[in-house]
Design goal:
The complex is a heterodimer of chains A (about 120) and B (about 110). Chain A has about 120 residues and is mostly beta strands. Chain A has strands at about 5, 10-15, 20, 25, 30-40, 45-50, 60, 65-70, 75-80, 90-95, 105, 110-115. The N and C termini of chain A lie far apart (about 40 Å). The chains are: A mainly beta (about 120), B mainly beta (about 110). The interface of A and B includes residues 43 and 95 of A.
């Protein structure tokens, strides 16, 4: 069975600084997707970034980038130039790419606070 | 614009009562999911459906049921509410077949069982 671990329950960062959130996962599958979702105080879940396991290049979306290490089963999220609006709960999620399978396995989340 | 909605947004009920949480999506997605969110556990999958008349149990399905009679709706029923089911419930949907896996989430329902 797949598992997803986020070992940092809470983190804080100064505005404009860079922060990295860690995520590790365990799977015997070779093809899968990994995601980072953001949940601000409004509770709405928002997709931040997605990585396909067959792609060696790390995904980037503006100030958000990932460090995907397939052999180490690690998928960390880097937030550059942190903004107050980045304050949120961040969840890492795994989805098997096997045909007909679309469900996620989530980590327990990291609460990030950006300090002014 | 397409969206996914949940109702009610807040619900207080008593132990032993049957409760139904509604989820409606206009994305025309085949896949729909119900999660519960609890401190220290993240989001855990309760039930999911990959199409009309299809339902499957997730990791925390005991005490919950779903039915899928059309593409748009996946109501979640708590047969006999228990205090352990006090939680925030999220519904989500996604495309199937060649899609890149993104799930679209509803705004959540906060359920309190007293």
């Amino acid at each position: 069975a797949q598992t997803v671990t986020q070992s940092q329950p809470e983190m804080s960062v100064q505005e404009a600084e860079t922060v990295t959130l860690s995520c590790t996962y365990d799977t015997s599958e070779n093809n899968y997707y990994l995601f980072w979702y953001k949940q601000p105080p409004s509770r709405q879940m928002i997709l931040v970034i997605r990585q396909e396991a067959y792609k060696q290049q790390n995904a980037t979306e503006n100030r958000f980038s990932v460090n995907f290490q397939k052999a180490a089963k690690s998928f960390s999220l880097k937030i550059s130039d942190s903004q107050l609006g980045d304050t949120a709960m961040y969840f890492c999620a795994f989805m098997n790419q096997r045909s007909g399978t679309y469900k996620y396995i989530f980590g327990t989340g990291t609460r990030l606070k950006v300090l002014a | 614009d397409a969206e996914i909605t949940q109702s009610p947004r807040h619900k207080i009920t008593e132990t032993g009562r049957q409760v139904t949480l509604a989820c409606h999506q206009t994305w025309n997605h085949n896949n729909m999911f119900w999660y519960r969110q609890d401190l220290g556990h993240g989001l855990r999958l309760i039930h999911y459906s990959y199409g009309v008349q299809d339902t499957n149990k997730g990791e925390v399905s005991d005490g919950y049921s779903v039915s899928r009679s059309n593409t748009e709706d996946l109501p979640l029923t708590l047969e006999s509410a228990a205090s352990s089911q006090t939680s925030v419930y999220f519904c989500a949907s996604s495309e199937s077949g060649g899609a890149r896996g993104e799930q679209y989430f509803g705004p959540g329902t906060r359920l309190t069982v007293t």
